[in-house]
Each structure stands twice: as C-alpha cells, then as structure tokens.
Specification:
Blueprint: H1 4-16, H2 22-29, H3 33-47, E1 52-55, E2 59-62, H4 67-74, H5 84-98, E3 101-103, H6 104-111, H7 115-129, E4 136-140, E5 143-147, H8 150-164, H9 172-176, H10 184-197, H11 207-222, H12 240-255, H13 262-273, H14 289-307, H15 315-333, H16 343-349, H17 351-368, H18 374-393, E6 397-402, H19 409-421, E7 425-431, H20 436-442, E8 446-449, E9 460-463, H21 470-499, E10 500-507, H22 516-529, H23 537-547, E11 551-552, E12 556-557, E13 570-582, E14 585-594, H24 602-614, H25 617-625, H26 629-639
Parallel strand pairs: 6-7, 6-8, 8-9, 10-13, 12-14
Antiparallel strand pairs: 1-2, 3-5, 4-5, 11-12, 13-14
C-alpha cells in the first residue's frame, strides 16, 4: 500500500507531465533527494512495472504506457494515513461505516504510531466533532465507538466522503470506489430504470451527488443505522418523488439485506424533490425584480472599479446573474444547500475569476443579509468566467496568413485555422507571398505560412503543412503560448522589481507559533508599520480570508484585501521552512498583495501570473529554492522569458 507522500509525488508528476528533477521534487515534498529515489523505487515495485521513468540528467516522469493513466487514477484510494488530520478522518470513517467499534491497539499497530501520537489524534477527532453537537466519542479501555444521532452521522459521513473525493462529485467512477460493500454502478442502473418508468428526469449534473446520497443511505442501512426525521409530511406520499423512492428501495431490498423504512423513503423523496424545479415544496414567490437588477448593476460597478474589467455591455452575464440571484434567494428561503462539482477546479485554475466571485459574494451578503457558501461563490464564478473569456478573446493575436491561392487549397487552409483557433487569432491579411514592406505595415503578432520563409522582421513565424495536421496545430499552440508568455513577461517585468520589496521579504522567518493567523498578522503589521498600508487594510485581508482561503495547490497562498487599497503598492513574501495547513492545502510560500488605487489594474496581472506559476512544479521549486530577495526576483523574471 502506498503512503500519502508517494501518492502526492505521483500527483506532482501527473500534473507536470514532463521531466522533474529529483532536487525539484525534494523541495516540493520537503524531503531529501534520497527519499525521492526510495519512494519512486517503492512505487514502481508496488505496481510491478516502471510507472515512473528515471533519467540521470532529466530526472523523473510518468511513463507513457497506456495503463499508466488507469494505475494513477486507481491509486488515489490506497494511501495509509500519514498525519493527524488523515488519521482522524480515517478513524471517523471506520467508526461510521466499517465497524461500530475500533480496537485502538490494532489501529495503532496498523498505522505505526506511538501511544502519545494516538492520544493527539483522538483530540483531533474530538475537534472535528465539535461541529456535530450530538456526536461524542465513547472509550472503554482500548475500544472506541461513536455515539449520537444517525442524522448527524450521515451528515458527517457525507463530509468525509467529500474530502476524500477532493470535491470532484462529477466523477461517478471515483465515487463508486468509496463504497466497498456496494456496486454503486449497478445501483445507479436500477435507479435509472425506475426513473424511466415514471418518465422522470434527473439532471445529469445532479446524478453523481444523488448517487452519493443513495450510497451513503444504503451502506448505513446495511449496518441497521436508520435515519429519523423530526416530522412526517403526509402530502409527500402523493408526489411522484415518493413513488420513485419507494419503488427504488423495494428493488434494492431484493438484492441487498436492507430493511425498508418509511423515513428512508421520505428522505430520498425529499432529496429528489430538491433537484426538481416542479417539486411543490420548493415553490416561492418571485423576488422583486427591480431590487435584483439594482444589485446586479452594483456588482458590475464594483467589479469594473476594483478589477478594471468592464462587464456592463455583457447582457448575457447581466441576465445570467439576475436569474442566479432569484435561485439563490429561493435556496436561502428554503434552507437548501448545493454542491458545486467545479469548485476546486475554479479555485485552482482560475484564481482571478474566483476572487471576483468572492467579492461579488461579499456584496450579496451585505445587501441580502444572509451567508454565501463557497459552493455558491463557485457558481457565481462560472458566470463571471464565461464573460471574462469573451472579453479576453476580444484581444486576439493579429495574424497574417501566407499561402499560395491555388486550386482552392488556400480557403481550406484558412478555414481550418479559423475553426481551430478562432478564439485566439484574428486573420488580418491573406497573402500569396511575403512582402517585407507590406507585412511591416500590417504589424502582425504572428505569421502562419505554408511556405519556407526567412525574414528579418521580429515577428513569430510558424511554417505549417498544406493540410494543417494535428502536428501543425501543436506548432501553432506552442507559438501562441510563447506569445502569451512574452506579453505577460513584458507587463510583469516592468513592475516586479518595484513591487517585491526587500524590506518585507522574509525567508524562514520565525513568527512564533506558525499558524495562518500569526503569519498574516506578522506580515500585515510590518506593512502598516512601514507605511505601505492603512490601518484597516489588515482587517480587510482577514475578511477576504474568511470568505475563502487564498491557498492553492503546490503550496502557494496569495492573501489580499477585498476592497481596502494600499497607500503604496508592494508584494510581501514569506518562504517557510516547513509547510503549514492553510485552508485545504499545505503552504510553504506566502505572497501578500497590497495594491494602491493607482495600480489596481495590476491585480489582474498578478493573478494571471500566479495561475501560470501554480500549475508549474518546476517554477515553484525554483521559487522555494531562492536564497534571497534578488534570487527570488531573478527567478520570476527569468521564468517569464
């Protein structure tokens, strides 16, 4: 069985997709080069083939064999718990499902921990249970059990499964592996069949979450742990949802030893109804359209002011936000919660969009006087992301095509390029041959040619075949990526030396107890004392952190304010010897952004740069390895070339 560290090592290699040196991996994992070599050997031995290739000069990468993808995906649920958090979740899951009691001596031997470590793990379990008032640990000598209501146990179990799937509730195959006693895919087929009999449709995006609910319910019933509801709605029995739930459990009880309970049928009927717009219990009056329109208008005004992105003319975004507001108010009035399967992807790959959504959520909370969950914020981010992509596509790369207009091949050549890259390039001219003066006057960003071409102009030029093959498309993508980097480098380099101030750059600075609050307070107090920020800047940064942690994969955190501007723009940096838990991720590098009103447009630039860095383990390793302020700045500037 693989350890969590070995799983994490595989994840880094999977994300990067290319060679990573042992030194880079060692910095990423906070271990020695020797440990990396040892772990890779154990991983390959575990799978019985060379899953991870090694090269003395290049380092390590995942092999290109077809079965590698299946192996990597299947490995995600095999790791033994390695730290207090993981062991606490491991204990709780076993208490909830696998066993009603746990022998602590056996558990201690299974995960190779001392008695004192076990006691600390149990403290962690009790901390988790503080959010579930009826749930308590009961310990008799070396036997541990969990007491409390079945409703709260189900809620806790669902939370643990959400952590295990890392928020990706769209992957039904992954979810099915979490239920060791069930064939969830077969159960889904039975559920689909029952729904088809009643001509009842569940939205595809809701099916994974619905099956998660059903799997939890059935697995608990197998252990004869039934839910109890505080009321019984007689009218519910007349609904189609109740009939579907009753018939479904009747079918399941024929193949699994579960006892049919009225409360279980009612619960499933309610879950079905919560996803059906026609479910009579969910009907509410329409909210005041004028107030919603005014709120959306205020949101667009704030976004334009703070992020220098004008969404005013995007009627699709405006109408989409208005519809979403009505649904949000509906859910709040009916006390319904939603899961957003894209939440982690949005936070990780689109930090600028997610941060705009956080700001939007703050405005809604202030005006509507209710709390917005991170899942709701992620739905808002989807609306903003679609509009932002549209606005960015308005800045396409100006492209000249050079291709002889013979036998209709030219139109085919151009149409393929337009179809494949319509969001990235704007074809400003189609020439049959290269003329230096004409091309200089056109001043394109890119030349795509089917002819061998050498010229003295400083313009990126790519030669393609007549038929624009997949290999040709790869060449164009490489050129566009290089242009993106050049554009970002040109903008970022102008400000980076000025903004990353040496007087607020800290390497392995000891702040006392290494917690998120202490580290942020240390850095924010320094900014205030040096005059970079006003007094209320600190509270605003903590308010932003409260909405949603600013940590991301690969160990970055990028805290910043919601709306309070700095007196003078700067970027404070802290590198940590040992990672700390910051939200959902371990963090070793903190980049605290303070932007003045005059420089507010650079906020977008920082997030775009961060999005580029956070998905590149090599660059992150180099940043961690920078010995001082000058080396850190040179690393950033050099990597944008």
């Amino acid at each position: 069985m693989l350890t969590t560290r070995q799983e994490k090592l595989m994840a880094y290699l999977r994300e990067d997709g290319s060679w990573l040196t042992g030194k880079a991996l060692a910095y990423l994992m906070s271990v020695s080069d020797r440990t990396i070599r040892s772990d890779i050997g154990k991983i390959n031995d575990f799978y019985g083939f060379t899953l991870i290739q090694s090269n003395r000069r290049e380092g390590y990468r995942l092999s290109k064999r077809k079965k590698t993808i299946k192996v990597v995906e299947a490995s995600q649920s095999m790791a033994l718990p390695q730290n207090a958090n993981e062991r606490a979740l491991f204990l709780l899951k076993h208490l909830l499902v696998s066993k009603k009691e746990i022998n602590l001596i056996s558990f201690q031997q299974q995960v190779f921990i001392s008695e004192s470590t076990l006691e600390n793990d149990l403290k962690k379990v009790r901390q988790i249970l503080q959010d579930y008032p009826s749930l308590k640990l009961a310990r008799s000598k070396n036997i541990l059990s969990l007491k409390g209501s079945e409703g709260e146990k189900r809620h806790l179990y669902k939370t643990l499964l959400a952590k295990e799937t890392k928020g990706n509730f769209l992957n039904l195959t992954t979810i099915s592996t979490l239920f060791s006693k069930l064939d969830l895919m077969t159960i889904k087929a039975q559920f689909d069949w029952i729904c088809s009999r009643y001509q009842y449709r569940v939205r595809e995006i809701d099916i994974p979450m619905m099956m998660l609910h059903i799997g939890i319910g059935i697995e608990r019933m197998l252990n004869r742990n039934f839910v109890s509801l505080p009321y019984h709605d007689g009218a519910l029995q007349e609904s189609i949802e109740y009939q579907i739930a009753e018939n479904f459990y009747q079918q399941i009880s024929k193949s699994l030893p579960i006892e049919l309970k009225e409360e279980e049928i009612v619960l499933l009927a309610i879950l079905l109804g919560n996803r059906n717009a026609n479910f009579k219990k969910l009907r509410v009056e329409q909210s005041d359209d004028k107030s919603i329109k005014a709120l959306v208008n205020e949101i667009l005004t704030v976004l334009a002011s703070q992020y220098v992105i004008n969404f005013y003319k995007d009627e699709h975004l405006r109408s989409g936000l208005e519809r979403h507001m009505r649904g949000l108010i509906n859910r709040q009035e009916n006390q319904l919660t939603v899961q957003n399967p894209y939440r982690q992807e949005l936070k990780r790959h689109y930090p600028l969009i997610f941060d705009m959504a956080v700001r939007l959520g703050e405005i809604i909370e202030d005006k509507m006087h209710f709390t917005i969950s991170e899942n709701e914020i992620a739905f808002l981010a989807i609306h903003l992301g679609a509009s932002y992509d549209t606005s960015r596509n308005a800045n396409k790369y100006r492209t000249v095509i050079i291709h002889p207009d013979e036998k209709g091949l030219a139109s085919q050549f151009v149409s393929k390029l337009e179809s494949r890259f319509q969001g990235d390039i704007e074809i400003i001219a189609h020439l049959s041959y290269f003329e230096e003066g004409l091309v200089r006057d056109l001043n394109p960003d890119l030349i795509l040619t089917s002819l061998p071409l050498r010229h003295p102009l400083p313009i990126t030029t790519v030669q393609l075949t007549l038929f624009v093959t997949h290999a040709d498309e790869g060449l164009v993508i490489d050129a566009l990526t290089q242009l993106d980097h050049q554009k970002l480098h040109g903008k970022f380099e102008q400000k980076v030396v000025e903004l990353i101030r040496p007087d607020v750059f800290y390497r392995n600075k000891v702040t006392g107890s290494e917690t998120v609050e202490n580290i942020l307070s240390f850095m924010l107090n320094a900014l205030y004392e040096k005059g970079y920020t006003p007094e209320d800047f600190k509270a605003d940064v903590f308010k932003r952190e409260f909405f949603s942690a600013t940590s991301f994969a690969y160990g970055f955190a990028m805290p910043h304010s919601l709306k309070v501007m700095a007196n003078e723009s700067c970027l404070s940096v802290m590198q940590l010897d040992q990672p700390i838990m910051w939200g959902e991720y371990e963090v070793r590098l903190v980049l605290l952004i303070a932007i003045s009103q005059a420089d507010r447009n650079y906020m977008n630039l920082f997030f775009e740069w961060f999005n580029d860095v956070v998905n590149d383990p090599k660059r992150y390793s180099e940043l961690l390895n920078a010995k001082d302020h000058a080396a850190f700045v040179n690393c950033i500037v050099g990597n944008n070339n």
